[in-house]
Amino acid sequence: MFDENPVTSADKTFMDMRNAIVEGRIAAGAKLNEAELSTTYEVSRAVVREAINRLETCHLVERKPNVGARVVQLTKQGLLQIYQVRESLEGMAARLAASNMSDQDVSDLKALLDNHKQTVEGGESYYQEAGDVDFHYRIILGSKNQQLISLLVNGLYHLIRMYRVQFGMAGPRVSTAFDEHKNIAMAIANRDEELAEMLMRRHIMYSRRNIESKLVEG
Amino acid sequence: MFDENPVTSADKTFMDMRNAIVEGRIAAGAKLNEAELSTTYEVSRAVVREAINRLETCHLVERKPNVGARVVQLTKQGLLQIYQVRESLEGMAARLAASNMSDQDVSDLKALLDNHKQTVEGGESYYQEAGDVDFHYRIILGSKNQQLISLLVNGLYHLIRMYRVQFGMAGPRVSTAFDEHKNIAMAIANRDEELAEMLMRRHIMYSRRNIESKLVEG
DNA sequence: TGGGTCTATATTGTCGACACTTTCTGCTAA
DNA sequence: TTAGCAGAAAGTGTCGACAATATAGACCCA
Prior knowledge:
By secondary structure, chain A is mostly helical.
């Protein structure tokens, strides 16, 4: 959904590694050994290094000169900081989307939610997750602000996914979240910038609180 | 101010190229030829490629597979989009700084402004620019939100500088901006989160308008 | 003359080898 | 016993060469 097809070998290695990290097959905090990875993925070290560079760009790994790269550590504090940033940026995205989305964009968004509704009623949690990501993704694109799009899509989204997957919070708040989505879409359709931003910020805030409560339990 | 000393050869090349781009010695929109750059900076192509990767990370260049990298094009629209994002992110930084800065941080900030005042009265425009960057930088750090810090410092700030330098807007609004800084610092010292955010957002908005008016003239 | 194909050239992508730095290990000496 | 210092091992940084791809230009044909 996010990425075009990988054209170069480094593209593919980057995506493979990214998925491995997001899904925890490469553990959080783990050291990345270039030689080892190059045999695993059957490419040269140069390709692995290129892939690691890009992983660093989307904040999934951290590098230290002459020492190496590690997968980021997942912490409660880190998660909350991401949600703080998300609230601000996606709130803004919703506001901009309300003024910049084309009518076509808006009806596509509604159609997405209709589709989504079916699967929610079916109760399939994976599709719920995917649907949620897709919804947010479209609003980000709808902002038509390239800087914002780049920051969120290339910069934060995979990290968010990583937290969701590894903290085991796929498909929370299913029907509630769906209603929130519907209201946001409505505000955007009405070109109500202020309301769209407010609803999006609250939507993300609720999501954060939901996660916080789970973390305290866990 | 921003960066530690370069430890590796790629670090140095990256910084050199970054300055060259920000200051326009490598023109906006220019194609980056790896072989050529490798002779210019007297390093291997691998090092140049690494540097280009990092330049891409801070949005100063764009790469296309099998084609190459170009310096970003500066457009009025792009500038406005950056300022939109800045308003949101730095507003948030100011709010977080008001709650998270240590008392020591706050007095350092005040001291900075006092120093700054002297140079403003001296009327030295270069120091004005540097002082402005430094002020904003401290508030960003004061937010203590790593994600936010990374997005702004590694992701946006050099691009902003590039616009400022190449659109020839060094040292605008000198004394006005200084007063705004003072008010923001005051709000932070009073731990008034809401006011700090609002003042910062307006400060950046004024700055944007100032630039917009210059652009229409130019 | 215009369009299209094919070749030649330039440029990026990938590779394996070597250089340098860090880290581990075992030894020496107080 | 332990602190500290070699020396070895492991890992990252850098390099030059080769492979694959895209671009530019010549040539052909309608």
